[in-house]
């Protein structure tokens, strides 16, 4: 007889593979194609990054609506639609001729990101598996943790062989040939009653949870959602800032460019290692405890770096990467633990919306900090990390 975990692995593999494709062809795309794209269009590279920021803001605005749709109809139709939108946006991006077309294509990609990245995948799992979705959420992040490892070399190879326009078309084709069938293969979830009928068990409002049964813990305080929104926004700001500027930071602290690239390459494997740790040892702990330790990792690594200099760069990269990997899982599991599966998708979209906004502006704002303070900008990221830890310490649950 197969166990529930064994039955869930086909879903995890499908969603994890589709998520790897979605992240590689959207969030990680500009790192390799922004400059060739700007050069080919005769535009400043800042125009491409501005279009990418627009996409992230659109994904923040659309996230709650996508989550609510998943709450009602399940993840299959929403994620399938996102595959089509990813393909349309990338195909459109391959044909743009100026700033207006560039902005429009990235806007379409932003809409796809709002219904096709982690938050939507987590909501789809919770819709199918309820409170037992933690292991599956971890499994998806394990697979999609290789999105940059796969996406960056593939984008670079495609750009070298067929140009940036051909690379965008190739990614669009992969969404139609790979992502779309994978999302279509997800199990159907029974549709919930519409707004004109009264469900037997209506979802809880966003500011609270459904009344607890006798064996359940009391509902969390009303501020819990706001605290989680801040924690995720602060930590995602750090993650995005490091993804954009880590080599520059290392060079500013005295490392060589080759050494900075080598140290930066440790972040990806460390993220996967952190997720493996969560999947093994830490899954027996309350996810709040895991999140607290993970939030502390970046400030500890930054402290070592500022104390010892570039020699501590590898330790910083490993600590930052591992903490970021665990926090990615916490973004899916903590709302589930505190609020339960009812209304999870819409609530998750609302909680994560500030994170998308922080993510959109992190490269610009942290870049300004580096220009002004050099490696001293780590005081800013460390302060944000410690504030996130303080907020997590304020929450109840992990100590019980």
From TrEMBL:
Pfam families: MFS_1
Molecular-function GO term, any one: transmembrane transporter activity
Protein's recorded name: Major facilitator superfamily permease
Positions with biased composition (Low complexity): 206-215
Key word Transmembrane present: yes
Keyword field: Membrane, Transmembrane, Transmembrane helix
Transmembrane segments: 12-29, 49-66, 78-97, 103-125, 137-158, 223-243, 249-268, 289-308, 314-338, 376-395
InterPro entries referenced in this protein's UniProt entry, alphabetically: MFS, MFS_trans_sf
Residue numbers spanned by region Disordered: 195-215
Source species: Hydrogenophaga taeniospiralis CCUG 15921
């Amino acid at each position: 007889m197969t166990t529930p975990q064994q039955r869930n692995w086909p879903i995890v593999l499908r969603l994890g593979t589709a998520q790897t494709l979605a992240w590689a062809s959207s969030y990680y795309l500009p790192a390799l194609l922004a400059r060739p794209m700007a050069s080919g269009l005769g535009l400043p590279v800042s125009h491409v990054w501005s279009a990418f920021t627009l996409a992230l803001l659109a994904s923040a605005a659309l996230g709650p609506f996508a989550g609510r749709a998943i709450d009602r109809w399940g993840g299959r139709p929403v994620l399938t639609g996102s595959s089509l939108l990813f393909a349309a946006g990338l195909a459109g991006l391959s044909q743009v001729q100026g700033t207006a077309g560039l902005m429009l294509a990235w806007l379409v990609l932003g809409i796809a990101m709002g219904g096709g990245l982690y938050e939507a995948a987590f909501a789809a799992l919770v819709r199918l598996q309820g409170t037992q979705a933690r292991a599956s959420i971890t499994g998806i992040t394990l697979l999609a943790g290789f999105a940059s490892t796969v996406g960056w070399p593939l984008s670079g190879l495609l750009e070298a062989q067929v140009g940036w326009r051909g690379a965008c078309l190739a990614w669009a084709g992969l969404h139609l040939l790979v992502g779309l069938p994978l999302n279509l293969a997800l199990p159907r979830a029974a549709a919930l009653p519409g707004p004109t009928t009264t469900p037997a068990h209506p979802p809880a409002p966003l500011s609270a949870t459904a009344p607890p049964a006798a064996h359940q813990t009391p509902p969390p305080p009303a501020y819990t959602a706001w605290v989680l929104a801040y924690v995720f926004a602060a930590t995602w700001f750090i993650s995005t800032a490091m993804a954009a500027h880590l080599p520059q930071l290392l060079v500013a602290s005295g490392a060589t460019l080759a050494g900075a690239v080598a140290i930066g390459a440790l972040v990806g494997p460390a993220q996967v290692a952190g997720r493996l740790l969560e999947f093994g040892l830490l899954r027996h702990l309350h996810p709040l405890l895991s999140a607290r330790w993970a939030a502390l990792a970046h400030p500890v690594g930054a402290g070592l770096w500022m104390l010892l200099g570039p020699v501590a760069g590898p330790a910083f990269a490993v600590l930052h990467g591992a903490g970021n990997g665990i926090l990615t899982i916490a973004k899916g599991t903590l709302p589930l633990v505190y609020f339960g599966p009812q209304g999870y998708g819409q609530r998750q979209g609302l909680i994560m919306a500030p994170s998308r906004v922080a993510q959109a502006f992190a490269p610009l704002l942290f870049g300004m900090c580096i220009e002004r303070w050099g490696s001293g900008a780590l005081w800013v990221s460390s302060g944000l990390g410690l504030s996130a830890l303080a907020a997590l310490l304020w929450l109840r649950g992990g100590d019980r």
